[in-house]
């Protein structure tokens, strides 16, 4: 990501070609995607008032990746825009982690208070309720069981129908919503590149690499931090995949969050490959390409989990 922005801000006198334009557009779309990435999950947590679906291990490893990315950018003395963006990622991670910790703490206290109230109520009232139910069943054996099952069945049907109506109202064509959101991010990214190019802020980098940061001039420590950041990004999703598998659920996760992540990594890789496929250039960007490819594979696994663990629509409410 840092290399994409570095290349976008390099100034040369070459004319713009289709390949260079595609590289710039893909890089700009990737940047827009990363900027908006965490918003869907933040909004879902706020809307539901809980954050139990997302793995804290996932978030903390990702924060470490962004922190090492920021440290590497500072050490390598990259352009201020790259450093500002890396700082933004760390800030956004901190906001999301703080939100999740807050909701988890509040909901944990509420559950504990509910358990304490229920246990105390059961201790005081259980004998009276037990005697009353026993006396009710004296007249006609089995009559109370049939009556209560009928009442619970009717209330169960009403609850199920209410849930179905609620779900239909809240989740009206979510795929259309996600598609429009992704399209909006693409438009913002492409427009940002067009404005930057027309204003002279962005100009193409020569394919021979004259405008690139030379590996020899990059401090070894900055390189190590860059590799550490890539490893963190690659391994961050593993705790989330494991959590989804154990819970057999993806409830509480924003699908758009992972769709944007997939698009960000795809456009990032495309911006590198559209710029050049020379061996030296590919070798320089290989760690980032491998990290993007691996992350896309992990996102694909999470998409499969969304499909596998999605609530099944049944007709049990009218049975």
TrEMBL record:
<feature type="transmembrane region" description="Helical">
    <location>
        <begin position="82"/>
        <end position="103"/>
    </location>
</feature>
<feature type="transmembrane region" description="Helical">
    <location>
        <begin position="285"/>
        <end position="304"/>
    </location>
</feature>
<dbReference type="InterPro" id="IPR051415">
    <property type="entry name" value="LAAT-1"/>
</dbReference>
<comment type="similarity">
    <text>Belongs to the laat-1 family.</text>
</comment>
<feature type="transmembrane region" description="Helical">
    <location>
        <begin position="175"/>
        <end position="196"/>
    </location>
</feature>
<dbReference type="GO" id="GO:0098852">
    <property type="term" value="C:lytic vacuole membrane"/>
</dbReference>
<keyword id="KW-0472">Membrane</keyword>
<dbReference type="Pfam" id="PF04193">
    <property type="entry name" value="PQ-loop"/>
</dbReference>
<feature type="transmembrane region" description="Helical">
    <location>
        <begin position="56"/>
        <end position="76"/>
    </location>
</feature>
<dbReference type="InterPro" id="IPR006603">
    <property type="entry name" value="PQ-loop_rpt"/>
</dbReference>
<protein>
    <submittedName>
        <fullName>Related to membrane protein</fullName>
    </submittedName>
</protein>
<feature type="transmembrane region" description="Helical">
    <location>
        <begin position="252"/>
        <end position="273"/>
    </location>
</feature>
<keyword id="KW-1133">Transmembrane helix</keyword>
<keyword id="KW-0812">Transmembrane</keyword>
<feature type="region of interest" description="Disordered">
    <location>
        <begin position="133"/>
        <end position="156"/>
    </location>
</feature>
<dbReference type="GO" id="GO:0034486">
    <property type="term" value="P:vacuolar transmembrane transport"/>
</dbReference>
<feature type="transmembrane region" description="Helical">
    <location>
        <begin position="25"/>
        <end position="44"/>
    </location>
</feature>
<dbReference type="GO" id="GO:0015174">
    <property type="term" value="F:basic amino acid transmembrane transporter activity"/>
</dbReference>
